[in-house]
Design brief:
Blueprint lengths: L5 E4 L4 E6 L2 E7 L2 H13 L2 H8 L8 E6 L6 H14 L4 E6 L8 H18 L3 E5 L1 H11 L7 E7 L12 E6 L3 H11 L6 E6 L2 H17 L3 E6 L2 H12 L6 E4 L10 H10 L4 E4 L10 E5 L1 H16 L10 E2 L3 E5 L1 H4 L5 H7 L3 E2 L7
Helix pairs in contact: 3-10, 4-5
Protein name: ABC transporter substrate binding protein
Length: 362
């Protein structure tokens, strides 16, 4: 019996049996023989033929994926979704979540990085994918720099230079925030109000974003300040300080995820009752707490990483695939928080934006 064979009939009744694109045999069946063959095929379980048509997971090449964060974190989930969509039916994706937002000590990050490296080695992957900075720093850079195994990275904040990227075995997509575009847009509406405060958390990614913000603020020639917090109380104190500071015109609130005792309900109420300064963000999950967002699209990172992985599986070297920045953004407004700032110019932005509602997924 021929397994995984393809059966085709010619016009004159010849039965051509091929396997993996190579002709195995050809013979002629009389009409009665065709009838018998048809009867046999009808009697066989349909699953046999369906299985021959559908690719089996164990027949696909293995792609190992190390995610910096945890399932349930919106940014992570949407990168993973984009990656899964681009690799569906093409690669058997094995995933390891580092859950690094719950890890503070460097030794903990080093330990989980080693676990992830062992996961990749044991997966028998043909290509590996890593997303966001901690996976790049503690897995790719630490264990696989210039390794024989090809890697695709994505979600690396601003630039890979601090990790010495690219390596001989890598390509990737860096994560660029549309902060300059967002600030310039707001400056056209309120050109006399440019003093900007950044409110963020304490983490590796936050530190990278703070440095990028300071560099941008200096290049734009604007006054700036930075608040980094790690607890609910620190955040509330900082938020109120910003809202009632006469030397601040704009609040850039970027992330709350590392704050373990974050109270979303209480903080939404605090914001709505003290909404004195226009607030901006670049993450969709932050739109409950900000008036305007120019939002990165995480799926773009995942889609690109999956497509790059497939190019590698089809024979391209990683260093033949150009490293690129993300290019897709969406403008969002929170109608409740934008209300005090509505002017004719602001309405011009609002009319082009997507209106946010709580618990909405774009």
């Amino acid at each position: 019996m021929l397994s995984n064979a393809t059966l085709t009939f010619s016009k004159n009744g010849d039965l051509n049996t091929t396997r993996q694109g190579i002709e195995i045999t050809k013979f002629h069946l009389p009409t009665s023989g065709l009838a018998v063959l048809a009867l046999i095929m009808l009697c066989l379980p349909w699953k046999t033929f369906a299985d021959q048509q559908a690719p089996k997971t164990y027949d696909l090449p293995i792609c190992a994926y190390v995610a910096s964060y945890h399932p349930g974190y919106e940014w992570q989930d949407r990168i993973t979704q984009g990656l899964q969509q681009s690799l569906d039916g093409k690669c058997h994706l094995k995933t390891f979540y580092m859950n690094s937002k719950s890890l503070k000590a460097r030794r903990e990050l080093m330990a989980v990085g080693e676990q992830a490296a062992n996961f990749i080695k044991q997966s028998q992957a043909k290509v590996a994918i890593v997303s966001d900075d901690n996976a790049v720093r503690y897995v790719l850079q630490k264990h696989f720099k210039d390794d024989a195994l090809p890697f695709v990275y994505c979600g690396v904040n601003h630039s890979g230079k601090r990790y010495g990227l690219p390596y001989k075995n890598t390509t990737g997509m860096v994560e660029k925030n549309p902060l300059e575009q967002l600030l310039r847009l707001i400056f056209t509406i309120q050109p006399a109000k440019t003093r900007t405060a950044m409110l963020t958390t304490q983490s590796n990614s936050a530190n990278i974003n703070v440095n990028a913000f300071i560099e941008l603020a200096r290049s734009l020639g604007i006054d700036y300040s930075v608040y980094q917090v790690s607890t609910q109380k620190q955040w509330q104190d900082a938020y109120l300080d910003i809202q009632y500071n006469p030397n601040i015109d704009i609040l850039l609130f970027t992330n709350y995820q590392p704050i373990k005792d974050w109270d979303a309900r209480a903080n939404v109420e605090l914001i709505e009752n003290n909404n004195n300064i226009l607030s901006l963000t670049m993450q969709h999950f932050m739109m409950d707490f900000n008036a305007i967002g120019m939002i990165k699209i995480p799926e773009e990172q995942g889609h690109w990483a999956g497509e790059a992985a497939m190019e590698i599986l089809h024979g391209s070297r990683p260093d033949q695939i150009a490293v690129v920045p993300n290019e897709q953004f969406q403008l969002w407004v929170n109608p409740k928080l934008i209300r005090p700032y509505r002017t004719a110019k602001m309405d011009g932005i609002i009319n082009q934006a997507i209106v946010f509602s709580p618990n909405e997924t774009p």
